[in-house]
Amino acid sequence: MEPVNKQANSVVISLTDQGQQLASRLVEAKVVAQHQHRPKPFTETVQSLFNSGQRLILICATGIAVRTLAPALTDKYQDPPVLVLDEHGQFVIPLLSGHEGGANDWAREVAEAINAQLVITSAQTYLKPQYVAGMGCERNCPKSVLREILETTLQQAHLTVDKLSAIASIDVKHDEVGLIELAKELNIPFHTYSAAHLRRVEDLLTQRSDIVFKEVGCYGVAEAAALVDAATLITSADPELIIPKHKNRQATCAVARIYDY
């Protein structure tokens, strides 16, 4: 394993204003050398840095990091280490090249520098993820259509319906028969939330729709409902959107995850 070099060949990439502030802290703490904020084009920039051997800290959802880097991966012996941090700086996750590439050791440095929780998934087995599907649909959408988009969406993260803790939506769908029947079929609860409640997480949405806002009073239903409901499962942790909104002609679906620490 190569020794950790805090000064050279390392880049932190941020996407949000809070992430930018966190990245500045990391540079000041000298655990990373360079900072790029919202680089464009994002995917090509990150892959180029990775392919050139740069050690990366990505301040974003793990799903974004995985989808961005997947085409560029070789193996754990050649790939540079990659860490993922949430924008609040609460958790540090060694995503790639944990042992062989030094990501675990680097993550410990970063966690100590910003007083964050280190999450080493390769060595710690106590983490328990819980998943919530947020769904929206046309009135009287058939259960079969809802189940189809749910399963298709879950496949994006190699998940199955038995991993879900709940289905969530906006309160105007509290009596939507298809959603109620789907939750009953899966033996999980169906929860709904007001538009005002869903707006609390609008900064975390990957897609914001003015049309949806005019119709129901919030910028998105599926993603927001998934995040809001996941947050109720474990109040001491922050949820993350691991699958952004997918849609067909009648329904939408997104999936959020939260870890039980």
Number of helices: 9
Q: Low-confidence parts lasting 5 or more residues at pLDDT below 50? A: 1-7
Q: Any guess at the CATH architecture of the largest domain?
A: 2-Layer Sandwich
Largest sheet: 6 strands, mixed
Strand content: 15-25%
* CATH homologous superfamily heading of the largest domain: CobE/GbiG C-terminal domain
Query: CATH topology of the largest domain, what is it called?
Result: Nucleotidyltransferase, domain 5
Strand order of the largest sheet: 2-1-3-4-5-6
Radius of gyration: 19 Å
Average pLDDT level: 88
Distance between the termini: 29 Å
Counted beta strands: 11
What is the ordering of alpha helices and beta strands?
Answer: EHEHEHEEHEEHEHEHHHEE
Briefly, what CATH class of the largest domain? Alpha Beta
Which structural category do the helix and sheet elements fall into? Answer: alpha/beta
Verbal overview:
The protein starts with 9 loop residues before the first strand and ends with a strand. The strands form two sheets. A six-stranded mixed β-sheet has the order 2-1-3-4-5-6, sandwiched between helices. The protein has helices at 17-28, 42-51, 62-69, 103-114, 143-155, 177-186, 195-198, 210-216, 222-233, and strands at residues 10-14, 34-37, 55-59, 82-85, 91-96, 117-118, 128-137, 164-170, 190-193, 240-247, 251-260. It has two domains: 10-118, Rossmann fold (3-Layer(aba) Sandwich); 128-260, Nucleotidyltransferase, domain 5. The radius of gyration is 19 Å and the shape is elongated. The longest helix is centred in the middle third of the chain and has 13 residues, at 143-155. With 261 residues, the chain is of the alpha/beta class.
